[in-house]
Amino acid sequence: MSNQAQNHEFQEWWNKQRGFLDKPDSTAFLTVEISNPTTSDPTVDKGHTRSARQLSWLWLLKFQQLATSLAWLTNGSVYLLRTANRRIAASRTDSPSDSSASSRRLYRIIKLFLLLVILLLCFELAAYFKGWHFSPPSMESAEAAVERAYAKWLEIRAGYLAPPLQSLTNVCIVLFLIQSVDRVVLMLGCFWIKFRKLRPVAAVEYDGSENVEDYPMVLVQIPMCNEREVYQQSISACCVQDWPKERMLIQVLDDSDELDAQLLIKAEVQKWQQRGVHILYRHRLIRTGYKAGNLKSAMNCDYVRDYEFVAIFDADFQPGPDFLKKTIPYFKGKDDLALVQTRWAFVNKDENLLTRLQNINLSFHFEVEQQVNGVFINFFGFNGTAGVWRIKALEECGGWLERTTVEDMDIAVRAHLCGWKFIYLNDVKCLCELPESYEAYKKQQHRWHSGPMQLFRLCFADTLRAKVSFGKKANLIFLFFLLRKLILPFYSFTLFCIILPLSMFLPEAELPAWVVCYIPGLMSILNILPAPRSFPFIVPYLLFENTMSVTKFHAMISGLFRLGSSYEWVVTKKLGRSSEADLVAFAEKESDPLVETTNLHRSSSESGLDALNKMETTKKSGKKKRNRLYRKELALAMILLTAALRSLLSAQGIHFYFLLFQGISFLVVGLDLIGEQVS
Asked: Could you give the 3-state DSSP secondary structure of residue 402?
């Protein structure tokens, strides 16, 4: 009975719907009428009422999303303003290394440029509101003095200022294209290596069945200076190398001038000596020549003549237990091989935005530059650590020299000119740590870009006189030094920090959009390919590289013209992120360690509890770290943002967005918001 009633109701509803759909003026054919016992007015269109309510809820949801976004932006802006206010109030501007005469001179030039740009913006704003941008006045038709002044400015701008700026722009564009072609060629070389599976082949392999006498004598050097956060990791990593103890000697070359650091390092060395490891502690009373002087002093020891190879590791590097077994075999049967360089692996690459961007740069350097140069021309710059040298090659090319701050590149260039060859192993990785603060990274980049220019001045004549082929000389001078060490920072700073904002005020000098956006974007994609997980950071990477151009340009000029700051050596501070647990996990992942080696390595965590307590106490009582303000970056941020305002008057879309985001990038870096934040 109930089923018949339900079917009857359904038939009545269906007939009603059919009649409604047959009406030609019906527009609500997709709505379904649902009976509502609470509604007493039969004239109300319930389908339309429901649609209106749904639209109301939809707009309410969108409004809530908009309010959430605005609240997030507001909170971010308030945090940014509070942080800037705190750092401005603290008056901590730049670092002591940035207070040199050359740095102050560059800052004064940037300030004058900023003043000029602001004056030009005021002048252009007045002309815009007068309507002169749409109908420029001429000297003949001008009546008022201001109008005649603007007409005269247009003549000077078009006849005298724009042509030299356009010439400089064209020169920078040509340099930019040449450097871009170099990047493309390097990437093609890397693709060819991957496609053909080209890699160096070792003549022998050490599997543990050899006699002890079959292992060559290896010297391991660990230079360090006041690096209490990382000394224990590097020493323990070298002491557990899977190499016969009687065929290996470890030198801990401590240049620390802090007594507590010396005591900690000496205690660590004594601990490993008691375990039967051949390890020595060396400390120089007079620290001359920085790292080069330290290595040179160690190589002058009488017992060094008994060793054939020397492996060098900085204080924050932890090689795997099979590092020597993976590198030494490549020297067998290759008497002209001087260096085997391995790749760096970073334990803190995901720590913050700064370390992620560094990882992109260094991944391209190792995966592309070092590998391509190693495979095709057997030469590349020694990275200063995580490499093994033939001691005979070091002695033949003059040993370590103290004349530059890039002693690693110096020794590599001299060995190359003497006819020695290099091998790069991309599949052998050595754990290390990236600088997490912008201050430490900036000091490191200044040294890395001023040193090559010092070396270029010193070895240019030697390169011309060297008894090597013309191709090697051309590669060393034009590619290794000029294109990748001088031209790159020059055009990057000049084009994007000087010419681009000036072209907004001198529109007669044109900078094409493909130079501003498309080609840099393509080059950024190529640079990021070796680190594919970093693709979400491609835009910050592009902006940050342009932001760093001011530091690299200043370093390049300082090294080229022998300014005071170019000879300053500042140790890159590390935080000790690569713990012993990280090292063990890395060793287990990359190789098949012996049980004895692993147990010995794990036992290293037992040592020095008292020493660690002393270290923590000293760290707490040391100088308090603070974030700083960087004046040059802040001044350039104001220049670029001012130019972005000027570009709005000319409706230059791509130029406006690039200047806006590049100015924000300079502002973030200038406020020291990109790296480690100290509360």
From this structure: coil
Please, are residues 552 and 493 in contact by the beta-carbon 8 Å criterion?
A: yes
User: Cα 672 from chain centroid?
Assistant: 15
Catalytic annotation, pick one of 314, 316, 408, 672: 408
How far does CA 101 lie from the centroid of its chain? Answer: 27
Q: Interior CA angle at 328 toward 327 and 330, to 5°?
A: 80
Pairing assessment for the beta strands 387-390 and 337-346 based on DSSP bridges? antiparallel
Which tens digits make up the pLDDT trace of 607-653?
A: 444 544 444 444 444 456 677 889 999 999 999 999 999 998 876 77
* pLDDT tens-digit series, residues 206-218: 887 788 999 999 9
Which residue reads 């959009």 in tokens? 513
Measured distance CA(554)–CA(541) in Å, rounded? 20
Strand (E) positions, 351-476? 387-390, 421-432
Per-residue model confidence (pLDDT) at position 70: 86
CB atoms under 10 Å from CB of 3, counted, come to 7
Residue with tokens 């040294």: 447
Are 505 and 643 contacting, i.e. CB atoms less than 8 angstroms apart? yes
**pLDDT (mean) for 86-96:** 65
Q: What is the pLDDT of residues 276-316, one digit of tens each?
A: 999 999 999 888 889 999 999 999 999 999 999 999 999 99
Distance separating alpha carbons of residues 297 and 223, to the nearest angstrom: 11
Please identify which residue in the block is written with the tokens 């294209």. 177
Q: Per the structure block, which two tokens stand in for 438?
A: 């912008």
**Is residue 410 among the annotated active site residues?**
no
Indicate which residue of 255, 316, 410, 672 is catalytic: 255
Three-state SS at 421 = strand
Q: Is the pTM of this model over 0.85?
A: no
Chain Cα centroid distance, residue 174 = 25
Could you tell me the two tokens for 363?
């991944």
The token pair at 201 is 């082949």
Residue 663 burial (C-beta neighbours within 10 Å; 0-12, 13-18, 19+):
buried
**Cβ–Cβ under 8 Å, residues 311 and 387:** yes
Q: Are strands 279-283 and 218-224 parallel, antiparallel or unpaired?
A: unpaired
Structure-token match 């429901």, residue found:
50
Please give the Cα distance from 202 to 123 (Å, whole number). 69
pLDDT at 520 over 70: yes
255 is catalytic: yes
| Whole-angstrom distance, CA of residue 669 vs CA of residue 133 | 35
Q: How far apart are CA 376 and CA 423, in angstroms?
A: 10
What are 108-115's contacts with CB under 8 Å, separation 24+?
110/632, 110/635, 110/636, 110/639, 111/635, 113/498, 113/639, 114/635, 114/638, 114/639, 114/642
Q: Are 580 and 605 a contacting pair, CB within 8 Å?
A: yes
